[in-house]
């Protein structure tokens, strides 16, 4: 099968057949733009990284952001922590999937060396002696020949709990998929053998609940974050038998937005401010029209609206549609301050301030670019620095508003109640 490579935001002419193109579109959707050409099709992707297996070959999707930095971004989006030894020997790695596989098995190996954490799981079984709670109603309906058997419900102390199941599910994917590399597959197979008696299930919500309620699983968080990323990007359940990996597509826009949101929530909490994430704004009294800004930060009556966009505009500024969307958010929230946060490939933060006037209303909008080109270990600090600058801007004096202009009536939930973004 032929290997093809696409780098996001760059056009490339590839000799794909119509069948190949349809298969690629089914996996990538709106992230793929295609035009017919003499040699096949001109293609461009945006906001995706990974691979897609097509009938005629394999399409490799590369990000403008280095692979190691994408994984650092994923960790920042989940829960911020120091990488430390995770980075040893990975500085020169370029391919996303082998790098992801190596990082994941390294974290799981660390957990295995410390011993798998056990937990309680509720089970039901037929016993010859009473154990736990006796389900009398079920046994009464049984024939007399089964009266010596007791149906019991009890808590079993076992390692077959949701976090271990999730880790094993991701290990099974790596064990059977060649794209992560033979060394990763061999290490994943060896680790899976140590989880004998554990079912491989992608119980994401159950694992997150147990992680939040039982501090004995705190060390699992880095590995579980990558396990979730692997399973959500592949869409594969770990089941017995061989299942070829049709695609591994990492969506970069939600990853960047989550990392920015978390950094803003932490910066706002440090200053005692309210931070609302993904909270719907109602435009009409009936609630039929809603808008959802990424983040709104509040300090008494002052508000700052922040919208994160995973884009690399060639002109330096985002397209006009993004500004129009942000200005609409500002009108809904009743503020004049807004910011667009974008990634940048350099090492130095970039910032541009614009004064926008729409329908007699003046708004101040900052375009802030987070530098993702420095060392991967410092990416978290770059996000924190950007968030701190934006939060500190909230206390600046407001722009003068023309007295002859009456603001539209917006039915905003910010006038009725407050909710804090959980950290």
From TrEMBL:
Keywords: Endonuclease, Hydrolase, Nuclease. InterPro entries: McrC, Ribosomal_uS2_CS. GO terms for molecular function: endonuclease activity. It comes from the Bacteria. Transmembrane segments: none annotated. PROSITE patterns: RIBOSOMAL_S2_1. Pfam families: McrBC. This is Restriction endonuclease. It comes from Stigmatella ashevillensis. The lineage of its organism: Bacteria, Pseudomonadati, Myxococcota, Myxococcia, Myxococcales.
């Amino acid at each position: 099968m032929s290997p093809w490579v696409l780098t996001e935001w760059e056009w490339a002419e590839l000799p794909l057949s119509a069948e190949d193109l349809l298969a690629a579109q089914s996996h990538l959707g709106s992230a793929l733009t295609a035009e017919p050409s003499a040699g096949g099709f001109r293609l461009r992707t945006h906001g995706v990284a990974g691979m897609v297996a097509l009938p005629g070959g394999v399409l490799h999707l590369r990000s403008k952001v280095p692979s190691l930095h994408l994984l650092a971004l994923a960790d920042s989006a989940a829960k911020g922590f120091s990488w430390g030894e995770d980075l040893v020997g990975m500085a020169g790695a370029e391919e996303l999937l082998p790098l992801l596989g190596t990082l994941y098995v390294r974290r799981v190996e660390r957990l295995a060396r410390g011993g798998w954490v056990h937990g309680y799981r509720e089970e039901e079984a037929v016993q010859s002696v009473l154990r736990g709670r006796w389900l009398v109603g079920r046994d009464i309906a049984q024939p007399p020949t089964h009266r010596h058997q007791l149906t019991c419900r009890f808590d079993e102390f076992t390692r077959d709990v949701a976090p271990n199941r999730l880790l094993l599910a991701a290990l099974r994917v790596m064990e059977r998929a060649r794209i992560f590399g033979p060394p990763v597959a061999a290490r994943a197979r060896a680790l899976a053998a140590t989880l004998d008696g554990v079912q491989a299930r992608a119980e994401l919500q159950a694992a997150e609940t147990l992680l939040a309620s039982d501090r004995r699983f705190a060390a699992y968080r880095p590995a579980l974050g990558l396990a979730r990323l692997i399973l959500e990007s592949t869409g594969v359940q770990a089941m017995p038998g061989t299942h070829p990996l049709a695609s591994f597509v990492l969506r970069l826009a939600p990853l960047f937005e989550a990392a920015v949101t978390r950094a803003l929530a932490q910066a706002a909490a440090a200053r005692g401010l309210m931070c609302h994430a993904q909270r719907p704004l109602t435009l009409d009294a009936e609630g039929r029209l809603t808008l959802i800004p990424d983040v709104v930060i509040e300090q008494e009556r002052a508000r700052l609206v922040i919208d994160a966009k995973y884009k690399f505009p060639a002109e330096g500024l985002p397209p006009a549609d993004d500004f129009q969307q942000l200005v609409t958010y500002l009108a809904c929230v009743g503020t004049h301050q807004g910011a667009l946060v974008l990634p940048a490939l350099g090492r130095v933060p970039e910032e541009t301030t614009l004064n926008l006037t729409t329908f007699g209303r003046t708004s101040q909008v900052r375009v802030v670019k987070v530098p993702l080109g420095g060392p991967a270990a410092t990416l978290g600090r770059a996000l924190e620095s950007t968030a701190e600058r934006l939060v500190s801007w909230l206390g600046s004096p407001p722009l003068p508003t023309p007295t002859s202009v009456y603001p539209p009536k917006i039915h905003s939930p910010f006038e009725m109640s407050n909710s804090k973004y959980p950290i």
